[in-house]
Each structure stands twice: as structure tokens, then as C-alpha cells.
Amino acid sequence: MYDFIIRQVKILDGSKESAFVADLGVKGDEIAAIGDLKDEKAKQVFNGQGLALAPGFIDIHTHSDTALLADYRGQSHIQQGVTTEVLGQCGGSIVPRNEKMAEQAKAMQMRMAPHSEPFMGLTTEEYLAELDQRGVSLNAVFITGQGNARQMVMDYTDGPANPEQLEEMKAIIRRSMEEGSFGFSTGLIYTPSVYAEIDEIVELARVVAEYDGLYFTHIRGENDTVIQAVEEALEIGRRAKIAVQISHLKAMGRHMWGSSKEILKLIEQAREEGVDVTFDQYPYLAAACGLDAILPPWASVGGKAEMVKRLQDPELKAKMLENILAEEGTGEWISIYKGVGWDNIMITGFAPDHSLEGKMIAEIAEEKGQDPWDTCSELIIANQGNRVSIVYFAMGEEDLERIMVHPLQMVGSDTGAVSGLPAPGKPHPRAFGSFASILGKFVREKKLFSLEEAIYKMSTAAANRLGLKDRGMLKVGYKADLVLFNPDTVEGPADYIDPRQYAKGIEGVWVNGVLSVWRGEHTGAKAGRVLKPSR
Ligand SMILES: [Zn+2]
């Protein structure tokens, strides 16, 4: 007797082999049989005719650490068929941390979910135990932020760590690895992660490599310096003998379009030399951040209030624009504005006036009859230096697709899961559609690669990368993380103007054998587990 059987369904087992029609039976949390089960009984039967069944997707790059505490369901991700979240990316994980960092994170959690129970633990062990105890809908894989270790030891101090500080950071990373982390991450454009130079990162990477852990990196530049930044990541892999995952690989700014060719060649060469490198990507042409990220770093020294004051000073404001527009930036820094332009920067979250959300800066400027730079600075001032969320269209279609079809590519949404209920602000649609739009737009409509290959990228390759031995494929004895979908209708309709739309064409999602989403409705299941590295 099976707990359930999905009958006559097209099986995409994750192996890249051609799909085939069969029945799949589940007992407990495991796939118990795949084949002809027509004489077998089950407590529940699903008709899979016309539908496809795949191993649950693994979102290899998320920022759901706090989101899962605020809302255990992980809605925008699980509604696409994601069954495992990889947390702690871009150098910033929720733990390890000190009390001051815990207070700041508490404020963020309370903004996301005012009635949720604040989590005040400091260690990886405490966080993972908390997820276990509260219960979550998706499996969780934890990665340790290098920025956390840096902040705990040196706060926001620039410059290299001294030997004692380095030892302290290594001890923090080591402890997190001992407590269940799969690796560590850097975010080398964010403070304080960015203050670490290569030697410091290599030292930490050597600790992680002792545990066969991974190095995930948001590299030090994604526009003019992207080649050097990729080289740095590969160099860390070489020196520390650690597996490297380059996060959200891309080439930003029109002047950099086409450089994905050179980037991919570098990566392939490194692999030939023995560096174990792979990468992930979200399938969208726009990136997301705060509007102040276009300003030169000196503009925000001392915090928000100081930044606002400088923007109100005509001379300093003119100096900023000069830096932003200069071909070489300030010499050390180049604005993300370069190769983008005001007509490609869309406001997506502006608390003082939500009616501006969805409009380009150039468009708002024209309506107001003013210069776009004046509009830009006015918006930041009006919000008192608080985050004005933007998406900016910086990537080229050709690069996006060249990276996507590459055999080393995996899919990561680069978001924390959010709910689809109406709320102020417009999250990047990648939170709602990264996986579904691969299946709809890029497989069915554009025919860039086969459904079989897509499932391999979104499940199997990621499971292999993480060393998850019983997930990422449909195989007898594997955990029953399953997604049942209609290959003819699946799509990610979320867009920049109306992002809070769940994926379509996803019939059912099971996590560890438990039905968690059925036809767009979350069942309330908390069947996700904290996964531990197999060492
Ligand atoms: Zn990042």
C-alpha cells in the first residue's frame, strides 16, 4: 500500500534522459516505485495524464534567512515548485552574529511580519534549531556569510585584518561549519564583506575546504571589472582548493554586453586546470537594489542623514553627478548607472508616493519637467535617505541566454521568498518567476533547451553541487520532493509592474512526501527539513 500514486505522468527524472510515461508511488517521505503500478493500491491517487513530474527545484541562491522566520511558507518560491532553499548568500547570513546585529535583524523581521515571534539567537546551531522547531515548508541549506564574521570581529572597519582578527574570523567560520553550514559566501560589493582582500578570503576558504564546503561569491564587480572579478573568484578556488560557485553571473551595462563569451571561456579554462567552478543565474534582464547605490561611495559616508545633506548641497550634488557620468568613475569606483541610463532605471518601492512605482526615472523627470538627476536626488531626499527600491535594466538578452544554456549554469532567484498578497512596493519578479519562466519562456516559447535539461539544471545539478545524495532526482529511495506541472501552460507571469503573481501551471508540490501546494493553494504543511552536509 502506497501513501499516494501519481498515475500516467510524464517522468522527468533529472538525468537529462528523455522523459517517459509511468506511475510513481510514494511511501512515507520516499519515492518507493516508478513504473507500472496499475495493480497497486494507494491511500490517495492523482491523475498525471497530460502532466509532467520533476524532482522539486533547488533555489541555489536565496536570501530567505529572515523570510522563513516571518512566514514559514516561502510562498513565492514554493508556488513555482521550489522545495529546497539555499540561504545565507552574498556575504550576509542571519547568523552567526553578535547582539547588535541581532537587534538590527529583529527590526527587519518585524517590518516583514509584525506579529511574528522575533528570533534572537546568535549561532548557526540556534538558527537551524529554530527553523526545525517552528517548522518550514521548504528544506533549508545554510551557508555562512563572510561579512558576518568580518562584522563580528572588525565591525565596519576598512583595511585588512591583523593576524589575531583573522584567527577570530576563522574560528567563527569553523564553528558555523561544525554546526551544519554547507560553505561560506562573500558579497564583494557590500560592506563589510568588500573590505576583505583576496588573502583574507583565501584563509577563510581554507577552513571551509577542510569540511569539503563550498565558496559562493557575489564577485567584486559585475560591470567594467567583471573579468578581474571572475579571475579573483577562480584564484581563490585555486589557492584554497575549494569548490567555487559564482553567484548570479552576468555582464552589466551596455558597454559590457557580449563579454559573457570571455567570462565563460575563463571559467572553462579554469575547470580544465582543475578548479571546480560552477555558477548560477536568475533569468531576468534587470537587477535590483536601492537608488542610492548609483551614488559614489563618498556620498554616503556617515550614514543616511549625511547623504541627504550632501544631496542638498548644490556643489556636492554636482560633484556626484560628475563622478556618476565619468567614463572611469572616481578611478576606484564606477557607478552602476554606466551603460544603463535614466530611461532604464525603474522605481519599484517609494514609500512617500506609491504612484511613482513602476515608472522610469526619465519618465518621472519628464512629467515634472525637470532634469533626471534632480528627480533622482529629490526622491532620495524625500525618503530621508531610506531605501528607494529600483530595478535597472542592465543586462543584454544575448548574454543572458548564452549564460543560461551553458552546461554549468544553475538557477538561483537571488531573493527572499515573499507572499503574493497585495502589499506596498514591487519586489523583483524573479522572486515569483525564476523557475517557472525557465520552463515557460525559455524552454517552451524560445526552445533554448529541452525540458529534460531544464530539470537537470534546476534540480539535479544543484543537488550534486550541494552533495545532497537523496534529492534532486526521481529515483527509488530518493526523498519525495516533487513538482507536478503542466508543460503546456507553465509560466511565470510576474513582471516589473505587477510582480506579485504566483507561477501558473504548477499543479502540485510535495516536500518530503507531504502535499504542500495544490493548484495555487498552500496546504499549510511544514514538511521542510534543515538539511545537513554529508561528510
Ligand atoms: Zn548578490
Describe the protein in words.
The chain is an alpha/beta fold and 535 residues long. 34% of the residues lie in helices and 19% in strands.
Give a short summary of the structure.
This protein is α/β, with parallel strands linked by helices. It has helices at 67-70, 75-78, 99-112, 124-134, 146-154, 163-178, 198-210, 226-240, 260-272, 304-312, 314-325, 361-368, 372-382, 397-405, 430-445, 451-466, and strands spanning 2-11, 20-27, 30-35, 42-47, 52-55, 57-59, 82-86, 139-141, 144-145, 183-187, 214-218, 243-246, 277-281, 286-290, 345-349, 389-393, 409-411, 482-485, 506-511, 514-518, 521-522. The chain folds into 2 domains: 55-287 and 394-472, TIM Barrel, CATH 3.20.20; 289-393, no CATH class.
